[in-house]
Design brief:
Layout lengths: L3 E4 L2 E11 L3 H10 L5 E5 L15 E2 L10 H11 L6 H9 L1 H11 L13 E9 L4 E7 L5 H15 L3 E4 L1 E11 L2 E11 L5 E11 L20 H8 L4 E2 L4 E8 L9 H4 L3 E3 L7 H4 L9 H13 L11 E4 L4 H8 L1 H11 L8 E10 L3 E2 L5 E3 L5 E7 L4 E2 L11 H22 L12 H12 L6 H15 L3 E2 L1 H18 L13 H25 L8 E2 L7 H4 L1 E7 L12 E7 L13
Parallel strand pairs: 2-3, 2-10, 3-7, 10-18, 16-19, 20-21
Antiparallel strand pairs: 1-2, 4-6, 5-6, 8-9, 9-10, 11-22, 12-15, 13-14, 14-15, 17-18, 22-23
Helix pairs in contact: 1-5, 1-12, 2-3, 6-16, 14-15, 14-16, 15-16
The protein binds flavin-adenine dinucleotide.
The site of flavin-adenine dinucleotide (FAD) has 44 residues, from helix 1, strand 3, helix 5, strand 8 and helix 6.
């Protein structure tokens, strides 16, 4: 632990490497950094409460433990699954380094499920195939349906072993950048301590953002309440770009009406989607791999069934996940948590009954642009010296316009490790960038203003309306009209947000204040998503435009880059958002029609 001082009521700390976020990506980075440099992890949640712990189904790696497989097939699937918007060199790194990523975890003590001869067992998952789409392949390493829980616990134990300094329940609210010789460099992070309401400035030679996703812009979501996109929002407000924000993944099997996730691992083990009349409808949409098609295709097919009147239930608004033929033993041993979720939350027993399911907002493909070394990119792919991002908040882009299941737990390990290694190498060769005297002023003023607000708008009400409009207008199917409706409503909500009431004026555990802060990030990101979605007049991966149903490689085989130009708090129009394009990096895979 390095020195820590207090001046004018603000706490100052100095660490070589400062990591924001203690999910899988942040802790995997910390394990690389801590043995070589002083390392702090700032996290708004106690580390083992991070969303990585909710991940169920598995982590992809072509170990070929149970059947033929190799990294090239995995790359092909990732590129095709991402509807060719994937940067192919990045996907090659992901799949090549996957094997070590799993073995690293095994060596750290992760209790994977085993085959009878003691190897790490593997199961099927959507979009993962043998020999370029011929049939589903067993590629997902898993620990029952608690893979993320095991990863998070294992990483946390190893962080403790390596002496990582955790600052738990500290909310990062700003990134400090200082101009040195005409170049903006990272100087540190400003954070708010939940327990005391005090402000801390963490000076760091390098800073890694690993703050996770922002599923809470939607109402029906598998994401935890805390996934409000703070890190992505902070980067945005700093004037740095965001990439591919229109691509949001809707996971096919959320519990109907609730959004709570039932892992694709269930279909990996053989579960089948059926419509109201019991038909296995995926045979019509993806004749080769059926229920194990990528998520964008399955989610769209489910919604189509409902739109065509083949939905089940009193309102014909969901379909069924049928696990009844799997048998009690498979469900209890390989899928125990989701079996329990269905019983607890819907009162349905998957052993004997079909479970009502419907798509749920799940994963942000877009986010903070980085290169393959996890360095954050500014305009024209210029590296921001000392700044890194990894995990769901980052866009490398290994997932393109649609992530394959089990590739995120892989991504956080591969690129978390790369971020940690590169950040520590950078820190060893760099000096601390001086902190400006007013480093904390922005945050102090902002929170003071929120506390002093005499407005009457309710955080919960604005959040509810935001989530409802996003579900209604920017979900699985989108059109110009629905997106325009979302844009107008989000803009209106941003205006109302200026008059938001914070009733708790106190310092200790002021979650009222922080929910207001988080709502601000949600509103910013929802607006960027909708503006990017309006601009992409084609359908690709998770972005389905009913008015432009075809993929258009001539005009849109490019990443969207969004820039804040002007005031982040402007709510009048979207002219504070500037859009640009960036080429997709290709290696050997030519885009073809995506058939499964
Ligand atoms: C229910 C569910 C099941 C899933 N199942 C799978 C699966 O089987 N396989 C797979 O590959 N993927 C799965 N995913 C996706 C995958 O789990 C996530 O994308 C991944 O775990 C994200 O990891 P992360 O480290 O980027 O972020 P997270 O694990 O979400 O961690 C984010 C961290 O950032 C911190 N943070 C956020 N904001 C701030 C702030 N302002 N200040 C300080 N700290 C902050 C939080 O405290 C937290 O520690 C699943 C996701 C969900 C929701």
């Amino acid at each position: 632990m390095t020195e820590s001082t207090v001046s004018d009521g603000i706490h100052y700390h100095q660490f070589d490497v400062v990591i924001v976020g203690a999910g899988g990506a942040g802790m995997r980075a910390a394990i690389e950094a801590a043995p070589h440099a002083s390392t702090a992890v700032i996290t708004k949640l106690y580390p083992t409460r991070s969303h990585t712990g909710a991940a169920q189904g598995g982590m992809a790696a072509a170990l070929a433990n149970v059947e033929d497989d190799n990294a090239e097939w995995h790359t092909y699937d990732t590129v095709k699954g991402g509807d060719y918007l994937v940067d192919q060199d990045a996907a090659e790194i992901l799949t090549r380094e996957a094997i070590d990523a799993v073995l690293d975890l095994e060596n750290m003590g992760l209790p994977f499920n085993r085959t009878p001869d003691g190897k790490i067992d593997q199961r099927r998952f959507g979009g993962h195939t043998r020999d370029h789409g011929k049939a589903p392949v067993r590629r997902a390493c898993y620990a029952a349906d608690r893979t993320g829980h095991m990863i998070l616990q294992t990483l946390y134990q190893n962080c403790v072993k390596h002496g990582v300094n955790f600052f738990n329940e500290f909310y990062a609210l700003d990134l400090v950048m200082t101009e040195v010789d005409g170049v903006k460099r990272v100087a540190g992070v400003v954070a708010y301590e939940l327990a005391t309401g005090e402000i801390h400035v963490f000076q760091g030679k390098s800073v890694i953002f690993a703050t996770g996703g922002f599923g809470k812009i939607f109402k029906t979501t598998s994401n935890a309440h805390t996934l409000t996109g703070d890190g992505v929002g902070i980067i945005w407000r700093k004037g740095l770009p965001l990439e591919d924000m229109e691509f949001y993944q809707f996971h096919p099997t959320g519990l109907a009406g609730l959004g709570i996730l039932l892992t694709e691992g269930a279909r990996g083990e053989g579960a089948i989607l059926r419509n109201a009349s019991g038909e296995r409808f995926m045979e019509r949409y993806a004749p080769t791999i059926k229920d194990l098609a990528p998520r964008d295709i399955v989610a769209r097919s489910m919604v189509q069934e409902v739109l065509d009147g083949r939905g089940a239930g009193p309102h014909k608004d969901y379909v069924y996940l049928d696990c009844t033929h799997l048998g009690a033993e498979v469900l209890e041993t390989k899928l125990p948590d989701i079996t329990e979720f269905a019983r607890t939350y819907l009162g349905v027993d998957p052993v004997v009954e079909r479970v009502p399911v419907y798509p749920t907002a799940h994963y942000a493909m877009g986010g903070i642009p980085t290169n393959n070394d996890a360095e954050v990119l500014s305009d024209n792919d210029t590296v921001v010296p000392g700044l890194y991002a990894a995990g769901e908040c980052a866009c490398v882009s290994v997932h393109g316009s649609n992530r394959l299941g089990t590739n995120s737990l892989l991504d956080i390990n591969v690129f978390g490790k790369r971020a940690g290694n590169n950040a520590v190498t950078y820190a060893k060769g760099a000096d601390f960038v001086p902190l400006p005297d007013d480093a904390a002023d922005g945050v102090v003023g902002w929170l003071k203003q929120l506390r002093a607000s005499t407005g009457t708008e309710s955080v919960a009400q604005i959040r509810k309306e935001l989530q409802e409009t996003m579900d209604r207008n920017a979900q699985v199917f989108r059109t110009e009209d629905t997106l325009n409706a979302a844009a107008a409503e989000v803009r209106d909500l941003r205006t109302r947000y200026l008059g938001v009431a914070v009733r708790d004026k106190g310092k200790r555990f002021n979650t009222d204040l922080l929910e207001a802060v988080e709502l601000g990030f949600l509103l910013d990101l929802a607006e960027v998503l909708v503006v990017c979605a309006l601009n992409r007049k084609e359908s690709r991966g998770g972005h389905m435009r009913d008015d432009f149903p075809k993929r258009d490689d001539v005009n849109y085989m490019q990443h969207t880059m969004a820039y804040l130009s002007g005031d982040a708090h402007s709510s009048e129009s979207d002219d504070h958002i500037r859009l640009d394009w960036k080429p997709v990096r290709k290696t050997i895979y030519e885009p073809t029609e995506r058939k499964y």
